TrEMBL record:
<keyword id="KW-0812">Transmembrane</keyword>
<feature type="transmembrane region" description="Helical">
    <location>
        <begin position="210"/>
        <end position="231"/>
    </location>
</feature>
<keyword id="KW-0813">Transport</keyword>
<keyword id="KW-1003">Cell membrane</keyword>
<keyword id="KW-1133">Transmembrane helix</keyword>
<keyword id="KW-0472">Membrane</keyword>
<feature type="transmembrane region" description="Helical">
    <location>
        <begin position="82"/>
        <end position="99"/>
    </location>
</feature>
<dbReference type="InterPro" id="IPR052017">
    <property type="entry name" value="TSUP"/>
</dbReference>
<feature type="transmembrane region" description="Helical">
    <location>
        <begin position="148"/>
        <end position="172"/>
    </location>
</feature>
<dbReference type="Pfam" id="PF01925">
    <property type="entry name" value="TauE"/>
</dbReference>
<dbReference type="InterPro" id="IPR002781">
    <property type="entry name" value="TM_pro_TauE-like"/>
</dbReference>
<feature type="transmembrane region" description="Helical">
    <location>
        <begin position="105"/>
        <end position="122"/>
    </location>
</feature>
<feature type="transmembrane region" description="Helical">
    <location>
        <begin position="49"/>
        <end position="70"/>
    </location>
</feature>
<protein>
    <recommendedName>
        <fullName>Probable membrane transporter protein</fullName>
    </recommendedName>
</protein>
<feature type="transmembrane region" description="Helical">
    <location>
        <begin position="178"/>
        <end position="198"/>
    </location>
</feature>
<comment type="similarity">
    <text>Belongs to the 4-toluene sulfonate uptake permease (TSUP) (TC 2.A.102) family.</text>
</comment>
Length: 257
């Protein structure tokens, strides 16, 4: 099937998806969590359930570029503590997708986007209360890692929206910019790749979706290079405000659609 007619996509809709793919690349190398805007665009242009399957390979491409850029800065003890809880969240999200129809998924994505916007606002207000990354070795740190891990696994499976959850966790654990980007890069590459069999089993990834991905993934690369260039130049506060506003608008659009 031709990529431009897949799901009756118009030229303007394809342009919106291409912009969303570019933003994925930018978010992976500059502002983690900004791809919630991409999620809203994909869910608005495509059927809600199908959008999660189309977006997943785009996210993986961005993750690969982020790992290549920040691979020396990952904090593996934190990653190993998160993965078991994340796996449980992914399983819960898969069971939810088995039960939910397109309308429920669309409403759920909208609600998750609004929740993630609230999480991001809260994270920005509490970001100054930092600890060292190794503080996750404490009992409270382990409980926090498990809680965020389950929530992150569920939101990333249902809506590819685990970015703000993990961003808040890593910032609250005291990670500086490069450590934050390196740890989140490996985290999302491993988690997103592990989601592929689940998404394929649910019918969210197939030949048609991969055909559209092949056209869109080309836009991830310039976005990643733009993010790498901008990471030390961007006004982080203003950009996060814009991302939050766009996420709220996208979430409301999906809820009211």
């Amino acid at each position: 099937m031709d990529t431009m007619t897949l799901w009756h996509i118009t030229g303007w809709e394809f342009a919106a998806l291409a912009f969303a793919a570019l933003l994925v690349g930018f978010s992976k190398t500059a502002v983690s969590g900004a791809n919630t805007v991409s999620l809203a665009i994909f869910a608005a242009v495509l059927p809600a359930r199908a959008s999660t399957g189309v977006l997943l390979p785009i996210l993986i491409a961005g993750d690969v570029l982020a790992v290549l850029t920040y691979r020396r800065h990952a904090h593996w003890p934190t990653l190993w503590r998160l993965f078991p809880a994340v796996a449980a969240g992914v399983v819960l999200g898969t069971l939810f997708l088995v039960w939910a129809d397109d309308g429920i998924v669309r409403t759920s994505i909208g609600a998750i986007l609004l929740m993630m916007a609230g999480v991001t606002v809260w994270r920005r207000r509490t970001a100054e209360q930092e600890a060292e990354p190794d503080s996750v070795t404490s009992r409270a740190g382990r409980v926090k890692a498990r809680s965020y891990g389950v929530l992150g696994g569920f939101t990333t499976m249902v809506a590819n929206a685990g970015g703000p959850v993990m961003s808040m966790y890593l910032l609250s654990a005291g990670f500086r910019k490069l450590g934050f980007l390196g740890t989140s890069a490996f985290f999302f590459l491993i988690v997103n790749v592990s989601k592929v069999p689940f998404s394929a089993g649910l019918g969210l990834i197939d030949g048609s979706s991969l055909l559209l991905d092949a056209a869109l993934v080309l836009f991830v690369v310039p976005g990643a290079f733009l993010g790498k260039w901008a990471v030390n130049r961007i006004n982080q506060r203003l950009f996060e405000q814009l991302v939050i506003a766009a996420t709220v608008v996208g979430g409301l659009q999906l809820l009211l659609r």
